Fold this protein.
Amino acid sequence: MNLITVYDIQNKLIAFTSPIPAVQAVFCEWGSLYFLAADGRLHHIREKDTRSKLDILFKKNLYQAAISLAKSQLYDEDGLVDIYRQFGDHLYNKQDFDAAIQQYSKTIGRLEPSYVIRKFLDTQRIQNLTDYLQALHRCQLATNDHTTLLLNCYAKLNQVAKLDEFIKTKDVEYDVETAIRVCRQSGYHTHALFLCERHQRHDLYLKILLEDIKDYAKALQYIGKLDPTEAKSNLVRYGKELLTHVPDQTTQLLVKLCTETKPAATTVAVASNPFGDDEVDGRFASTIEAEDFIPIFVKNPVKLIEFLEQLVKVNARCSSTIYNTLIELYLHAISTAKSAQEKQLFEKKTMTILESSQADYDVDQALLRCQMSDFKDGILYLYKKSGVYQQILRYHMEHNEHTHVLDTCQRFGDQDPLLWVQALSYFARNEECKSQIQAVLDHIERRNLMPPLLVVQTLAHNSEATIGVVKDYLLRHLQKETKALSDDEKLIQQHKDETEKIRHQVEQLKTQPVVFQTSRCSICNQALDLPSVHFLCQHSYHQHCFEGYTEENECPACAPENKKTIEILRAQEQSRVAHDQFHSRLDKTSDGFGLVAEYFGRGMFNKVLVVTKKA
């Protein structure tokens, strides 16, 4: 008997062995081996196909040999992955988890990762799961869930070194936000901050500092390094919390952000100290609006005052919102001041803003705030600035400030004479104001603001104001009226005489011949010669002088005066027919008799026919 053994040299294994009778000859033909035995029998040995070979190896758990065989037969990738999976399952069942995870790692990209992950979710096998997840990330096939699971594994195993290596390496791709979230949840805030800073997740960086670490100073410093747009959005979001814990530094940063220039094109500024005096490029103007930061000071009005004061100090031409808010804060501070010195300080600051020519505040809003806070100086100044002098007078009247009432009339009486009339009505309702009444009457008389009858009616409300108070005033007025009447009578008599003289001249012109004795031309002052032009007004002209001077048949010397007289008559005629104007003024005036007399003098109630006659 002989023993036949077939070796697979390439895969280094015994492919076949069997006893056989004495062999007479061996030959290979048609892809098979043939053995001719001594007894005359021919033995045929045929090689099995690859699938059958693998099945035999699987049954004998020779997975390493099966892998070598499959590779030598140029097995496809899916076939190899299936062998790796079966090999891994075999090792897993033998509880050789380290070797099993090595085989499973070779299936990445073909085998669903969840198939492997489910097997190693047990706490005792978390290290093997970590190795598999690391391989998954190295192949860049990990999902957000895989990243979360891997970081949780690092956290549970307390493998800080591997965690550092994972997040700091640039060869592994993973979802950054997921990594930050897991590190934050696991308490690895330093790693989370590193990821936020590297990938410019500014909002998450600040959330970790403020919500987890409570490092407000560092958060404020980080905001100071951001570009203006990012810094603004984060200060608006976290400003209230920062002001609560680091009010001074936050206020300084806000002032710097709103007043200093800063390049807006960069993502993170070069300056390392947000509170320093670093030089900045003046080519870029700050575009941050300070009004956006006012709401974050809602619980800290003291710092808001400091913030707005520094803005106004740097740029006096701030917006109206800034000034309106600052005035409101000052007035609130005045009403809540704990000492007279503090109150006086804020009153002075308020008046400084109100009196500033560069302060662009809303006058109506500021006046309303001053009235609500009963800030006298501000109210009076804004009344004066608005030109409502009667409101100033009314304010002093409401507070029974007699001296200020007279002062107001003296200061603004020229702009608004009716102030004296109102002052008289006010003093007439108050007892023991004889001296003030006398002073007001002097001004009323000097400016002729009221008729005497109305003055007497007004003073009738004061029981203390006897006839002796207005005696001198009435006497002087009567004397003026008497003198005016005498002057008018003289003027009337003069007009009558002139009228009679004119009538006499007209009558002479109608009935008697006119002798022209003028020997010189009234234009050129030369001796008259024929032809000449003579007028009844005793003016004579050369004909060529008259025709060259005017085209109208009217005396050139008397024409201007005649035109003026005609225009006066026409104006009186128009005034006489202005009935609507007359009735409107009659309804509004307090001296109806005087108004009627005025229109009567204009001839409104007469009908005059104007006749113009050519010379």
About this structure: The first strand starts at residue 2 and ends at 8. The radius of gyration is 57 Å.
